[in-house]
Amino acid sequence: MGIVDWFKNRPGQYDPDRVSDELVQWGVEKAITLTNPRLKLLPTCQKRLTPAVATTIEFLREQARALPAIRPVSSTSWSADPALRAFFVAPSDIATLLGRSDNLRTLFDKAPELDVGKKKDLTPPMLLFIPRWTRLPVAGGVSRGVG
Questions:
Q1: How far apart are CA 35 and CA 146, in angstroms?
Q2: Residue 30's pLDDT is what?
């Protein structure tokens, strides 16, 4: 038995892209919690959800690999990047338009370590910089602060 066990579990069969059992278990628990926690009472619920959750995790990993590379967003990189020029008319529009984004403000509020406006040791060309202190015009001519 010892030789057969060694052969089945040898390091050469290790697959780093394989979905871990812990991750699948966490996904099943999360799916049950978000849909209906009473599903835990069913005896085969976790067993039946496990293949679907594993397939979903593999699919999401493939989708993450297919995402385009990260682009630095700054007024200094605007002239060299055709994609930035397609989205923003002028370099000054980058800070203005991104500063109006409620979703970005919510992200920075939830994850303050991402707020580069507070980080002084990073170089601006490689950052997504949104001046949170900018006064933005809103409907009715009244301006409000972004921060």
A1: 36
A2: 93
Residue-wise pLDDT for 6-28, tens only, equals 445 555 445 567 788 999 999 99
CA distance 82 to 10: 50
Helix/strand/coil for 19: coil
Q: How far apart are CA 101 and CA 130, in angstroms?
A: 10
Nearest to 96 by CA among 71, 121, 78: 78
In the chain, which residue ranges form alpha helices assigned H by DSSP?
2-8, 21-35, 45-66, 82-87, 91-99, 102-110
Q: Are the C-beta atoms of residues 121 and 127 closer than 8 Å to each other? A: no
DSSP percent split of the chain into helix, strand, coil, nearest 5:
60, 5, 35
Q: With left for phi above 0 and alpha for psi between -120 and 50, is residue 143 left, alpha or beta?
A: beta
Report the candidate in 68, 67, 79, 64 with the shortest Cα–Cα distance to residue 125. Answer: 79
